[in-house]
Amino acid sequence: MPPAAPLAPNDAVASNISSDPNPPPVPEPPRPLYRESSQFKHWRFSPKQLEARRATVNERAIARVRAGWEEEKRDDPESDPRPPPDLSPPTPAEELALLTFYMSSLPGMCKAIGFPEVVEATTATYLKRFYLTNSVIEWHPKNVMYTVLFLASKTCNIPISITDFCNRIKNTNKPDSILELEFLVSQSLRFEFAVHHAHRAAWGIYLDMQAMPDPPAIPTLESTFAAVQKAVRLSRLTSAELLFSPAQIALACWRSADSALTDRYAAWKRDAFGAPQVPEGVLDRIAGMLEEAKRGVDREVVRLVDRRLRLWRDPSKIEGSALYKKRQAEAEAADAEKRAKRARDAQVARESHEAVFGLELISQGDPLPGAATVKEGEGGDDPFV
Questions:
Q1: Residue 364 Cα distances to 361, 367, 368, 378, angstroms
Q2: What would the pLDDT profile of 313-363 be if each residue is shown by its tens digit?
Q3: I want to staple 311 with a disulfide (CB 3.0 to 4.6 A). Which of 2, 83, 100, 153 is the partner?
Q4: How many angstroms separate the CA atoms of 250 and 31, rounded?
């Protein structure tokens, strides 16, 4: 029987691979950057989750305000901060309407100050996130909005002094009232300041379309992109970014401006690059939110909600009330205790340092504590004197 022919180099490699009982695992494709962000992990909800969260925030705020009324009545029997019995508190939908109304004023404010679009977009995002843990019943958007805008200017690296900020906006609060809410806002945002914006995704699609086979003419593309930008700005008045990804919102805005071009772009991305198909119904849902935002907020509803909020107030936030004074005294006592604790900790640290490294050195010529002194000419029992 003739000997077997030797394996060719490629055959030998193939034989080794096929005989390996534990082949190396196939690496997973890289995850999109957005899915690794805090925005996806902590600020993305289903419609039911978002509705339930807003309802919970509303219920808790109402309970706290009612408890504050009772405490105010106990501390000051002559005071009665409760509104008329027939005046109901704002509902979650009315809270959202009031917030949307104030967010609609952001473009004008940013234009007056000279902030770029990224600050406007970040402010809108921060406001929506803030009111997922707080209620307008306790924190009116009129007061919070200035703090959020000032904070967004810093996180977007567009710094401005608080004095210049207040001078450029009319009818604003004092600088101290803006700064004192900054920690509360940051805490409510979980100190997660990075935001993935839909307008950047829309800009990326604009650049991508120029590389398509048979791309549209630049003037046509630019006019379409102008309509897309309007749709993106309109989406900031909705809850879209809490439900959908920035890329989905951007694609929906492109589709609202030119559906044929957008469909051709999506097909090219799938065929040439293996891009995933957008889940069915997502773009239509976003388009519906954009149409609802175009109709705007009923100003009469907002006016009535604002009027009710003047009576549905937490006494602890009304200057001059007994509960306000009580909370201020408690805060001052807590601050004093913190300062005293820091002083005690510093004293313990000094004593610990001395215990490790010994007592402080005594300057040359000074006698040691408790040592006997010897007069000149008196050697005593010292043989070296």
A1: 9, 8, 10, 22
A2: 777 766 656 666 676 676 777 777 788 888 888 888 777 766 655 555 555
A3: 83
A4: 19
368 φ/ψ sector (left φ>0, alpha ψ -120 to 50, else beta) = beta
List, for the chain, all residue ranges whose pLDDT scores fall below the cut of 70: 1-21, 26-30, 69, 72-73, 75-85, 171-173, 317-325, 327-328, 330, 353-385
Q: With a threshold of 0.85, does the pTM exceed it?
A: no
Count Cα atoms within 13 angstroms, Cβ side, for 166: 13
The one-letter amino acid code at 144 reads V
Among 45, 136, 143, CA closest to 91 = 136
Q: Which residue has the tokens 């929506």?
A: 128
Among candidates 279, 220, 219, which has minimal Cα distance to 248?
Answer: 279
